[in-house]
Amino acid sequence: MSGNMPGDGQERHHPLPEDNMPKGGVNAAVPVAAEATPAVDPRLIVRQEGVKGYLGEFKRRLSSGELGSLPVVVALIVIWAVFGSLNSSFLSAQNLSNLSQQIVGTGMIAIGVVFVLLLGEIDLSVGSVSGLCAAIFAVMNVTHGVNQWVALLSALVGGALVGLIQGFFFAKVGVPAFVVTLAGNLGWNGLMLQILGSQGTVNLSGTDIVSRLYSTIYGQQIAAYGVAVVGVLLFLGASLLDTRRRKAAGIPSRPVSDIALRTGLLAVVAFLAAYTLNQYKGLPLALLVFLIFIVVLEWVLRRTPYGRQVFALGGNIEGARRAGINVSMVRITVFMICSTMAAIGGLFLAAQIQSASQTSGGGNLLMNAIAAAVIGGTSLFGGRGSTWSALLGALVIGSIQSGMNIQGLSNAIQFMITGAVLLAAVVIDSLARRTQKAAGRA
C-alpha cells in the first residue's frame, strides 16, 4: 500500500480551528495521545494464553478456511485405518517400506507440479517429459555405451530445455500454459518413441547410477535413526535461528515452548518412521533423496527472494509486476524446475521397472502427479502450497493403490476412488477459498 494509509509510521498533523482547540492549547491533547494503547500482535495473545489460546486459534483458522494440511493428514489416517483393519499386512513394515520407495518417482514429478500450481497454471506434459528423459538416459548409457554420468546429466539437461521451451512460449509469446503443455504432452511423447527406435524397450543394466539410487537400502539401523536425528536437529536449529532474527528485528517470534512442542511432534513422527523402516530392510536411499529435494526446494520457496516472487505471482500477478518482479523470468524458470523434476521422477520410475519403454510416462502417471500435488494441499488457484504437499499427496495415492492391490481390487475401482479423492480435495480447496474471502483473508 502507499504511504497514504494510517498506521504506516508517518505522523499526521492537522491544524485545529482556534475555537475548537482544547483548553490549555495544543499541548493539552498530548496526554491523551500518550495514553493510547499500542496495538498488540494477536499471535502474542494466543501464545500467552497457552493451550486455551492455541485451541481458540485453531477454531478460528477452521472457521476462516485456513485448513492447511489438516484434511490430507486426516484422510491419510482414515485410509491407513481402513486398509489396516481389512488386512493386517497393509501396515506391516515390509509394505510401508515398499510404499516409501514406490511413491518416489511420482512424488518427484509432483514437486515440480507444485511450483507450476503456485503460479495458478498447469503442466500437462510432465508424464511425457519423464518418459522422454528416461529414454535419453537408457539409450545413451545402454545402447550407445555413453558414460552413465554423462547420460544422467544429458537427461536432466533435456528436462530443463523442455521447460525452457514451454516456458518461453507461455511467458514470452503468450500462449496459454494449458495449450503449450498439452501440445508438449503429444510432441515429447513422439520424440521419446523416436529415440527408443524400433526396439521399443531398453533394459537398464541394474548397476547404473539410476538403478543404484532407487534400489540401495541402508540396512544399518543407525542410518534411519541418524537421518531422523539430523532432521529434528535441523528443524530445531532453523526454528531457533528464525526466532533470534525476529527478536533482533523487533517482530513477533515463536516462544521456546512452541518450538519445543513442534520439535517434539516432529521427533515422534521421524523416529516412528525410522523404527518402521528398520523393522524390514532399513532406510531406502530413494526415500532419502526424495526428502532432501523436498526440504531444499521448500527452503527455496520460503526463504529466498525467488520463492517469494513465485508466491507473489500466484497471489496477484498484476501486483507482482508493479512491484518490479520479472514475471517472464519467474514463469520460465518455474516451468524449467517442473520439467527437471519430471526428468528426475522419470529416471526413478525407469529404475523401478528396470527399463525405458514406449509406455514410459504414460498411463495414469500425469493424473497421479497432479493429483498428488492437489490432494497434498497445493491450491489449483495459485499462491498457496508447499513441496511437502507432494509427499502427503503421493502417500495418499500410493496408500490407496497399495491397499487395493492387497485386497485384489481391479484398476477400475482404484481409478474411481482416486478420482473421488482428487475431487474431494479440489472441493475442500474451493470451499476454503470461499470461506477465506468471506472472512476477508483472501
From TrEMBL:
The chain crosses the membrane at residues 67-87, 99-119, 126-143, 149-170, 177-197, 217-238, 259-277, 283-301, 332-353, 365-381, 388-406, 412-432. Pfam families: BPD_transp_2. Part of the binding-protein-dependent transport system for D-xylose. Probably responsible for the translocation of the substrate across the membrane. This is Xylose transport system permease protein XylH. PANTHER family: ABC TRANSPORTER PERMEASE PROTEIN YPHD-RELATED-RELATED, XYLOSE TRANSPORT SYSTEM PERMEASE PROTEIN XYLH. It comes from the Bacteria. Residues 1-24 are annotated as: Disordered. It comes from Kitasatospora terrestris. It is found in: Cell membrane. InterPro entries: ABC_transp_permease.
